[in-house]
Amino acid sequence: MDTEAQPTERDRSSDSGTPGPEGRSRFALVSRITSWLPGGRATLTVLVGLVSLLLVHAFVAQPFQIPSGSMERGLRVGDRVLVNKLAYRFGAEPQRGDVVVFDGRGSFGNGHYIKRVVGVGGDRVVCCDREGRIEVNGRPVDESTFLYPGDRPSSVRFDVVVPVGRLFLLGDHRSASSDSRDHLGSPGGGMVAVGDVTGRAEAVVWPFGHAARLERPDAYARVPAAGGAHG
User: What confidence score (pLDDT) does residue 123 get?
Assistant: First the structure.
């Protein structure tokens, strides 16, 4: 028995290259739109590209320029980072060690800021232990891999419990960073609402010579959950 598929009349008509009613309708719509636009099809292509770019910018990813040295040594003045705006959607939450961009209104000031998450909701963050290290939930954190060379973890002493739904944030260049430590007496106690986080910084994309992916450091991996046993 011959099992080779045989083209039907419908197959033959499709292969002829003649568009069906739906294809002709779309073609007519595109032709009508391009006839209205100066520059025709080229202008339409540019507009579609711009709309796509705006949608990506609004909902998916957005570049931000680093305005200060508060996140050195990893992020330098003028660096451009790509921020993942979907990182904390669909139930995900910021984690300790993440570098995030957030809206500072109501907590830090006007504008957007970029800092590292040190404490999440329920965490007790203390500075400092006998060796000068920050403790989170009783566990000292070794920040040497990302802290600015020569900086202490903090010259300001504090002992705070982060409210649920908020974040305690510090810059990596502690001596040049205005962060949660400096706003402990401000509305919100220096803590930033999770809802004010724009997204997670994923990578330095410019300049090319400094391009790098921003990984979550291992320093916080052994921190117990809030209320967990201290070891």
Answer: 97
